[in-house]
Amino acid sequence: MKERKKQYFHPIEVTLDVVCGKWKGVILCLLQENDYRFGELKDQLYSVTPKVLTQQLRELEEDGLITRTVYPQVPPKVVYSLTPYGKDLEDTLRMMEKWGQSHQQRVGDNFNEEVSEAELS
Amino acid sequence: MKERKKQYFHPIEVTLDVVCGKWKGVILCLLQENDYRFGELKDQLYSVTPKVLTQQLRELEEDGLITRTVYPQVPPKVVYSLTPYGKDLEDTLRMMEKWGQSHQQRVGDNFNEEVSEAELS
DNA sequence: ATAGGTAGTTACTTTTTGGATACCATGGAC
DNA sequence: GTCCATGGTATCCAAAAAGTAACTACCTAT
């Protein structure tokens, strides 16, 4: 799994440490809207494998962002939902979403210009 | 370096793709306050090696978040600063910083208990 | 001619992360 | 007794990211 004992120099590292992972951002965004079952997440993430999805979910759980609720049924039903701390990320996630959108557009349009090395003295 | 041609399922992936890197978050936070020279960043990040710092800066530059300005002097002087797009992340970064602080406090309590137990043995 | 300061680079190794594929447990329906 | 659906595990492997240590280029000042 993931070791998270390191020392941080800056508080933003804490957040990034918790949110950086191939699928974590999207998972958190999805869960802002709805609770989801394992399979529902898997379907929405499309290309994620069960192993990796489990990993991401477990880490988010360890970090206190989501809860895993098992309904004792057959076939099993497991629902993932946000904790209050996960919900606290909502605004941040939305801003990141927005920035991502505009950045994506930008790259689509005019990312051909090279940034030149300005020469000053 | 880093390949960034993948397809995104969700706009937040764009942002995370650009910001996730061992030192990128901190670098961006620092640059919100001030422009910095290579050596100044290196000193503030303390444990970063020049290779990795260069990598992180180059990728941020490629992604259009920062600018690299070379002053043609000897010894060289290279200053890194934010582009408008980098500045657009300011609010987001601040929110992440804040969340990180509270999260750290939260786990800080548990962590301290664990540490003190360990210290007793 | 030698040393010094800045901003790197190069080559190599290790660690971390993610992916492919196959398999497992449960209990009810048939 | 076999099949099904769900929610996973178990192995093994590849790719990506980060770390280590040594080296470079430049001109200036001594």
TrEMBL record, chains A, B:
Region of interest called Disordered, as start-end residue ranges on this chain: 101-121
Stated name of the protein: Transcriptional regulator, HxlR family
Molecular function, one GO term: DNA binding
The UniProt record lists the keyword Transcription: yes
Pfam families registered for this protein in UniProt: HxlR
Keyword annotations: DNA-binding, Transcription, Transcription regulation
Biased composition (Acidic residues): 111-121
SUPFAM superfamilies: Winged helix' DNA-binding domain
Domain HTH hxlR-type: 10-108
Origin species: Fictibacillus solisalsi
InterPro entries (UniProt xref): ArsR-like_HTH, HTH_HxlR, WH-like_DNA-bd_sf, WH_DNA-bd_sf
